[in-house]
Amino acid sequence: MTVNEYNQCVDDFADGVYRFILKNIKDEDNARDIVQDAFAKMWEKAKDITFEKSKSYLFTSAYHTMIDFIRKHKKIDHVEDISSFEQEHDSGYSDLKEVLDEAVAQLPEIQRSVLLLRDYEGYSYNEIGEITELNESQVKVYIYRARIFMKNYLVSMDKVI
Asked: Is residue 10 part of a domain?
């Protein structure tokens, strides 16, 4: 990959990678750091990557960096999560975006990632499989399960009203 092709990748894919990472970790600064790390890794391997494969390499690198970040920063106290979850639902929602974000946040990590890649970023099942290192049937199953969860979550009227 040439310098011009690398710069073209930055122009074309930086926003998409950032949106994907931000939707998963919900922290703007850390999302920027992860995207920057992914581009740095791509620059280090620029001679080995073709321009045609750059998008896939970039999302794969960002995905794996995000997973490493999540594993390092797992400081979740489940008792606090449960109490805050109950408090949020007592007040009710009026904004659909808030309801959707809350539903996506409730998904398991892998289901959230594949759902965001498919429905928010528009990747094919095969491309998602390459990014997440899953086979195509596993990707389809995770997306199906995520959509069923989302449907059940959104159909529940106490979440919407």
From this structure: yes
